[in-house]
Known about the structure:
This protein is an alpha/beta fold and 150 residues long. The chain has a single domain (7-149), classed as HAD superfamily/HAD-like (Rossmann fold). The chain is 35% helix and 11% strand. The protein is built from four helices and four strands; from the N terminus they run H-E-H-E-H-E-E-H. A four-stranded parallel beta sheet has the order 3-2-1-4, with helices on one face. Helix 2 links the parallel strand 1 (28-32) and strand 2 (69-73). The protein is globular and about 45 Å long. The N and C termini lie far apart (36 Å).
Amino acid sequence: xxxxxxxxxxxxxxxxxxxxxxxxxxxxxxxxxxxxxxxxxxxxxxxxxxxxxxxxxxxxxxxxxxxxxxxxxxxxxxxxxxxxxxxxxxxxxxxxxxxxxxxxxxxxxxxxxxxxxxxxxxxxxxxxxxxxxxxxxxxxxxxxxxxxxx
Length: 150
């Protein structure tokens, strides 16, 4: 397992009083699982046998300690055609156990894992793009798609 820096290396987060009021009312942050928490090169039947993305476990701890409700988003826990909800629930528990086993000091965290987008103040995803306007974003999207086809 890789070296885990002490939590003291992460500076405390400070907010203005107005931001504090807003954050108190909106404390959910959604984080994508694959490529953000768990490295993912290609599908290997859902196996979780890699070390986490460097810094991911410490970041989850820090976000929870700061008071965020952390929701892990992943299509791995969707109910796929031909299977029952118990299979999706089994995969959800496997992800939770994988995360908990890699946390500093084995500390449990109150994480939610879902495949459904929930209201949040922030979504962290390796494939995300911040929306500004269609005039600005559409050319960026088309350029990315063109580059992917090369």
